[in-house]
Amino acid sequence: MIRSSSISGLLVLSAVLVFGLAGCADKPVPPPAAPVGFGDQPPLTFTVKSIEMIDAYVPSGRPPNIDHEFPTRPSQVVAHWVSDRLRHTEGDAELRVTLVDGAVIETVVKKSTGLAGVVKDQQSRRYDATLTVRLEMVEAGTVRVWTEGTARRSRTVADSLTLAERDRVFDQFMWSLGRDLDRVLEQQMHAHFGAYMK
């Protein structure tokens, strides 16, 4: 004979297993990819003879830095920004665009324990990214005016993501960071480089 308490225990266990399986089935879908590049924004034209991009950021290539593993590197985002958004006409100055920082730091997130940890698709890693670009107007070898813009973003990634899904999230994350920087730099250029803008 099976006691009623044993039956109750079996019912609770069954409910937990069913709930756990449902949780596994509802895997998070990576968000849609952010626009690649900045071609949807109007170009900014400067009265300078040239525009030069300098990649001064050197990835450490070791933990906790992980930017070197991203499918789209910070330098690629900035290169696209320069190509898509900046234009030049006749002038004596040179616009210098320098990538100063593009670090992405990975942090292990403390997981829930017990039943909640079993049935929930937990976030296992947090990524904190920084993108800093310096803009300089150079005339006759001298920096006449400069400004700097920084964008920061953070997000977590779930345990259940495959490597392909994680790369998609990373790609979207980096391009979104670039869009944030685009807004910051445009404000800075209008504020400081007005004499060089058409």
Task: Report what the structure shows.
The chain is of the alpha+beta class and 198 residues long. It has a single domain, classed as 2-Layer Sandwich (Double Stranded RNA Binding Domain), CATH 3.30.160. The chain contains 4 helices and 5 strands, in the order αβαββαββα. The chain has helices at 4-25, 74-85, 115-119, 163-192; strands spanning 44-55, 86-101, 104-108, 123-139, 142-158. Strands 1, 2, 3, 4 and 5 form a 5-stranded mixed β-sheet that branches. Helix 2 (74-85) packs across helix 4. The chain is elongated and about 65 Å long. Residues 1-27 have low confidence and may be disordered.
The rounded Rg comes to: 24 Å
How confident is the prediction overall: mean pLDDT?
A: 83
Query: Which structural class matches the secondary elements?
Result: alpha+beta
- Per DSSP E runs of 2 or more residues, the count of β-strands stands at 5
Shape: elongated
Report the sheet with the most strands, covering strand number, pairing sense and barrel closure: 5 strands, mixed
What letter string, H or E per element, gives the SSE order?
HEHEEHEEH
The CATH class, by name, is Alpha Beta
What ranges have pLDDT less than 50 throughout 5 or more consecutive residues?
1-27
Measured between the Cα atoms of the first and last residue, the distance is 90 Å
CATH topology: Double Stranded RNA Binding Domain
Per CATH, the architecture is: 2-Layer Sandwich
What portion of the residues fall into strands of 2 or more residues? 25-35%
Q: How many domains, as an integer?
A: 1
User: Helicity range of the residues?
Assistant: 25-40%
| DSSP helical segment count | 4
